[in-house]
Amino acid sequence: MQVKNDFDAIEEFRGDAFFTSSLHVSTVPSCSTWRQRIDTHAASWFELAGEFNLALLSAKYAAGPIDFGYLPCGYMPVDWDTFVMNNSGTKKEAVGRTYQVVDGDIPSSTNLGSLGYCLELALRPGVQHSALETQLNLERVLPMAAKLTPLPLLFRADSGLLSLKIIQQVCAQAAALSREISLIIKWNPRKAPVEVIAAESVLDPSTMWCHQREGKRM
To answer: CATH number for the domain including 190?
Structure first.
């Protein structure tokens, strides 16, 4: 199996008899023709990746179904995050200035279980905020996760997704799927008066503190 990340890579196979024979095709298109064909059918093929991934992850193998790795508390985690793909010096579509101050893309990655099985890897423009259009991703990945495990789901994300709209979307998916979906999203203080909140917590006798390490108090 070979994976190439640009259309020009097809050129090296255009004169390869074994390549055409193994794929049962008479000719291999040029890189420009290949690009045009992919662009033409992109919309109709968009959902295929999710369908293929669901079929792959739900299949039973010699040792049985996949063990995704549930948490000791009994939940199956669904982890969502973004990362930066550095494409500095290129002219690829949607490349922009990312939060890591490099030019690139920012894909969103959704993984199921503590072993990190990928549900979706969605390419995004480099300038796009983490929370923007994420509800569209949730409409795909949460139903997929619900089909793959009977366990209650625990949606986990960093502070980029701390949004009332996102929380409401997750709750709406839980209701639509008739499944328990809990959330852990890192707090983003934004304009919250952090110092005031901390001072009030210190003075509140009901506050319970835990010391994870020296100098770290929660």
So the answer is: 3.30.420
CA distances from 174 to 54, 75, 108, 112, 191 (A): 19, 14, 21, 16, 30
Sheet with 108-112, side-by-side order of all strands: 117-122, 108-112, 76-82, 153-157, 181-185
Indicate the number of domains in the chain: 1
* pLDDT value of residue 171: 95
Q: What separation in angstroms does the CA of 101 have from each of 55, 96, 203?
A: 38, 10, 40
**Inside any domain, residue 27:** no
Give the largest Cα separation in the chain, rounded.
78
**Which are the contacts of 183, defined by CB distance < 8 A and separation ≥ 6?**
154, 155, 156, 157, 167, 170
Q: Could you report the per-residue pLDDT of 136-155, keeping only the tens digit for each?
A: 889 999 999 999 999 999 99
Burial of 82 (0-12, 13-18, 19+ CB in 10 A): buried
Helix (H) or strand (E) holding 97: strand 96-97
The answer to the question of residue 39 being in a domain is no
Contact 34, 10 (CB under 8 A): yes
In a domain, 170, yes or no: yes
Instruction: Indicate the pTM of the whole model.
Output: 0.76
- 58-108 pLDDT tens trace: 998 887 889 999 999 999 999 999 888 888 888 888 888 888 888 988 888
Lookup result for tokens 């009994």: 74
In a domain, 52, yes or no: no
Domain limits at 111? 69-217
